[in-house]
Amino acid sequence: MKTSTAFCFVVMGLLGCASSPETAHTDQAVNEYPDIELILQNGEALNARELEGRNVFMFFSPECIHCHEEARAIRERLDDFRGYTIWFISSLDMGKIKEFAEMYELQDRENVRFAWSGTEGVLDFYGPIRIPSAYIYEEGKLQKSFSGPTPVDSLINAL
To answer: 97 lies in which domain range?
Structure first.
């Protein structure tokens, strides 16, 4: 459990940028995604700010019992997440992330991705967070966030 403590904190709040009506540009897309690098299982790297569409970020640890419970519940209700890509993101090594994905038969699902990200970028953007934590984005805009264990029905209702 000690290796997962990097994500085991209380949510301090989200940082956002607000522009005044005089400087707002309605033709610019909103992008509230964190500026963090995501390393996929195949070794490909991308920045979360490059994502488009509807995404759910699930910050987790393969060593967290609550994360296992949420992954199981998500797998059972995966059809309810249709239209969203679920990103399971952890700071533990990729081997443990892959084992977790395989354990819950989520590794080959069309709308599920597993990624590694360092803790520094996550902490810089979100502040200290608890695991599991979920952040639901639609077209670059944060819609809802959950800190700590969350019933899958609450996640689905927020979509």
So the answer is: 2-9+33-158
CATH number, domain of 133, equals 3.40.30.10
Is residue 26 in some structural domain?
A: no
pLDDT at 18 over 70: no
Residue 94: inside a domain: yes
- The C-alpha angle 156, 158, 159, rounded to 5 degrees, equals 70
Of 43, 125, 139, 36, residue with least CA distance to 89? 36
Residue 105 to residue 102: CA distance in whole angstroms: 5
Quickly state the pLDDT bin for 147 (edges 50, 70, 90).
Answer: very high
Whether the bond into 62 is cis, omega within 30 of 0: no
Domain count, the chain: 1
| Residue found under tokens 């599920």 | 112
- 39 and 116 Cβ atoms separated by less than 8 Å: yes
pLDDT at 43 over 60: yes
Q: How far apart are CA 146 and CA 135, in angstroms?
A: 6
